[in-house]
């Protein structure tokens, strides 16, 4: 398997926001396009909870990335113009240091010895990564979902390091409905006896708990409207039915099952717990005492905030809140409300609606 | 403990809609007020998934009922005027025959030998119960949530047995978003090793699975808006914290925990599975081939349909759909959209908004 991943290793211990220190932090990242001589055309994409740094295909890794339609020649993040960087989040399991990594101090996986993680910590490693690439100031900083929280944290903590900001289906702070859903997802993983307080190995991964958590995730990532049109009350074929008393009978049930099975092999359960909790902990008001003072720290020249009406996990009012806070902070901000029906996942699947506003915004950014 | 429950026993085997037969079906019910000489003042309330027949207090059982503010002297269901009947659903566990009952044929609990249950079966036993009370025609038939589905089934199957119909936060058929949520709740119960394919006993009840299912239930029964105002990002007291790595930290997490603990002791897991599935199976279109022909079977003189904008489990468009279908069927129907913020549960807690439309509607019904 080809691999476009590059690795950056921090040359000093990383102290985390809520305490604890990580030695020899590694961050996996990929890049597309070329950094110009002025080092002024760099664009950083912060990911949502589950993706790797593989945002798009490249010569080194021709497999499709998770935002394939967004990055490349002639696409919104035009690689003829931009040096695009995407990194695997701190705490994740696709090459960056996380709970599944070996603790260099003990020689054992961190598991729950990994310190409590915040998205501010993720923003800090992003800044170190940019240092290593000799990029002081980003042309643009882009983040969907959890990546939007990371991007906002970055822009508050390092106000002179990004000229433009794009926040997509994100939130200035986690609210109790989303916290409740994520808390329950975590409890589903933790309730699987195979989780064993984080001490599973490759033969005893808590797949049942992860599958249940992913199903709940899928329910919150899409929308009732999409499923009504897509599945209605369609039944699965009798031949595909398990015949179990309460086994899947409706199409929507087998759709969830298929998606959940795909995810459980791919993501480490402890990493999932840490990143999920990090989203709950995020609150821009911690930067200065209020949301207004937090967002007031931003020094970007302009911002684009995109939201989707059918998203109930990161609802549109939270996108409007971010835009309003920016406006109050004197930032030239554009708020885009898209009519996508795919809920929170729209930014991954409804490219025809997402490309135009991002294209327009990036066209106005100077290299 | 005092008990106002009365019991009705069916004098013949009950054949269920999807096959199977139940012998000696018992239905627990309670009544308030007096049946008049014309037997024309009876009001039947069909319950949601989890309540018992104890809708309100009475001399025989002075404990508060689940709709205490709705039933009694001077209340919308004025017991000086109406003979109010409420029954525990077939398949439930508060006195009526269900999966937790002893199968008289084997002397053992039914468990998963209980036949697949539908809300039409629940409507059928309601009709037999009314026969036993010598009530041929109800003045009004009222149902919230699952009870609204049961009431609609009853009114389609027995068109000459109710003069007026009140449907609250219900649906003409289950749609995939609600099916997905209930399917996952059932899977949470079934994934608990203690469930053991339904073969638990009183010392091995799958409490963990039930607690998780109830938490998901609570998340779908309330609303993001309510919780935002009620909990915000409030943390629980340090002293109340378990100190666990991913244990409850936010108020909303301990609220869910408290509610879930209350439920798990009270409701039988197998009964929960059957009733939950029965809601998924409900589709008024099965009565005549389409929703229009199903609702076209109704012969009520008037109907009241109440919905809540913050309800995303039984969304307002589904209330409007019921009302529109009734209108097309030539029924004098009133659609009430309430601004309650408590989501699907509003009919249980936002009495100040629910009483007036029900009062007004019932005042216009002749005894």
Percent of residues in helices of chain A: 25-40%
Give me the CATH architecture of the largest domain in chain A, please.
3-Layer(aba) Sandwich
Overall geometry of chain A? globular
Structural class by helix and strand composition of chain A: alpha/beta
The percent range for strand residues of chain A is: 5-15%
- Main CATH class of the largest domain in chain A: Alpha Beta
Question: Overall pLDDT of chain A, averaged?
Answer: 96
Intertermini distance of chain A = 34 Å
Give, in spatial order, the strands making up the sheet with the most strands of chain A.
1-4-6-5-7-8-9-10
Q: How would you name the oligomeric state of the polypeptide chains in this document?
A: homodimer
Low-confidence stretches of chain A: none
Question: How many domains would you count in the coordinates of chain A?
Answer: 2
**Mind summarizing the main beta sheet of chain A?**
8 strands, mixed
Taken in chain order, the helices and strands of chain A follow as EEEEEEHEHEHHHHHHEHEHH
Query: How many helices of chain A does DSSP assign?
Result: 11
Radius of gyration from the alpha-carbon trace of chain A, in angstroms? 20 Å
Measured by residues with Cβ under 8 Å of the partner chain's Cβ, the largest interface is: A-B, 48 and 48 residues
What characteristics describe this protein?
Rossmann fold; alpha/beta; two-stranded antiparallel sheet; eight-stranded mixed beta sheet; globular; Rna Polymerase Sigma Factor, Chain: A; homodimer; 2 domains; 367 residues
